[in-house]
Amino acid sequence: MIDHQVRVHPSADRLPREEQLAWKLAVVATGTQDAPDLDPEAARTAVDRIIDNASVAVAALRRRPVAVARAQALSHRTPSGASLFGVAARTRVSPEWAAWANGTAVRELDFHDTYLAADYSHPGDNIPPLLAVAQRTGRSGADLLRGIIAAYEVHVALVKGICLHAHRIDHVAHLGAATACGIGAMLRLDTGTVYQAVQQAVHTTTSTRQSRKGEISSWKAFAPAFAGKAAVEAVDRAMRGEGSPSPVYEGEDGFLAWMLDGPDAPYTVSLPGPGEARRAILDTYTKEHSAEYQAQAIIDLARTLREKAGPLEKVRSIVLHTSHHTHHVIGSGSGDPQKYDPAAGRETLDHSVPYVFAVALEDGGWHHERSYTPERAGRPATVELWKKISTAEDPGWTRRYHDPDPSRRAFGGRAVITFEDGSVVEDQLAVADAHPAGARPFDRAGYTAKFRTLTEGIVTGTAQDHFLRTADRLAELGTAGLAGLFPAVDTNAIAAADSDARLPKGLF
Torsion over CA of 98, 63, 176 and 409, rounded to 10 degrees? Predict the structure, then answer.
């Protein structure tokens, strides 16, 4: 890996484009012909992520934001376009709108893969726009895998090297750049074209984290879909010869100077050198539970504590000692009263670790739908327990969260339950059971089981089998085979979500 130093330069410097971060990211994409980009382990993991995305997308098809995005996309039909989750295979839409609808479906349940470092990310959000463009342009399964692997490489590098959250910038700013690079790698575009697309994508997808703060709305699911759609459009414009704000990262009125640490701050972004394999996808991990990633280990911890906690009505207090990120983003350190509001929506509850811990402690587990119903959130005993739970930042857990050694990095915490009689029960868990370093790391069998569970009642067993066979053979498939990555669904199972009664008409 090569460490690239990135900082703001005044316009008078006329920083050569070869020295700009956007150019170096583009080189990662266009240099794939010099590297074993279809590293077998990386390619297998990319297929795992495709299966994971389909699982959570199908499970979300009946949810309102996904139905809205699908309805919008269906207003942009074209015979030579791309497929949609939940729609007959013969129906195609423009690829940027397929990226929009499918990206929303993948993101809605907050249930797919994650990578945490200096910032947050869901690298699986790169896949819907890449798949849409692959279908539109007639790419093979191997081409798609090459693009996914490149997108993950860029995404992980940016998340490691540039923290957005400290300045309350939403993490989709890194997603746009990664998706543009992935499309460039998949289409084998030249470096100059990808460079322009990256800068356009970054410039147009920078937004604040209010989408994940306070009363969290459905935009949380739409935000990465918007970034994917913007990246598709940015590549299209760049291929037509259009330029972009340059240098988008290092410019004196650019991204680093005004959105992040300012003109005097250095950043280090590590990228693979010439001929080096793209394997960053192997550092990412998925979710067993449909909640924010820092809550994954907390749910597993609650399952363990449930067996030895005793009567929960006698709990005086529960303190979760955890990292700065967990405390301030999904814990009581956020200062968000909505995180303790029984009337809050799912988008807020899945970012409330006090709520998640209370329900998991009571139920001994987690369900992607039942754990979020208004009846479940409003249960009096749950509300009483929920109000007794707080988080506290522990410097030790914060250090482990940022540990450069993946084998020591941790996203969990320590729970201390104090009862009315003064007795205490406590335990801790560093990583979720499904994490690569966890008790039950996800493998292909885990992804398959997740797919079958989440698509039950929506996708027939025969259609499930066809999808899984298609995904397993992806590297051998031509473009016609990519349609098999959209499981055939029982349209009656999602018809209510698309009814006029549920969805008021928009402009189209």
Answer: -140
Q: Identify the bridge partners of residue 319 per DSSP, sorted by sequence position.
A: 390, 416
Q: In what order do the strands lie in the sheet with 413-419?
A: 389-393, 315-322, 413-419, 424-429
As a whole number, the mean pLDDT across the chain is 93
d(CA 45, CA 248): 32
Any residues with CB less than 8 A from the CB of 441 and at least 6 apart, and which?
434, 435
Model pLDDT, residue 347 = 86
Nearest to 299 by CA among 248, 225, 359: 359
∠ CA 458-462-468, nearest 5°, is 90
pLDDT at 45: 97
Q: Can you list the residues of the chain whose pLDDT is less than 70?
A: 32-37, 212-214, 216, 500-501
Continuous segment of H or E residues that includes residue 65: helix 64-73
- In whole angstroms, how far apart are CA 396 and each of 58, 321, 417, 443? 39, 10, 20, 30
5: which strand partners? Answer: 268
> CA dist 366 to 140, 287, 295, 342, 446, Å?
38, 12, 11, 17, 16
What is residue 86's predicted lDDT score, i.e. its pLDDT?
94
Cα–Cα distance for residue pair 260/382, rounded to 1 Å: 40
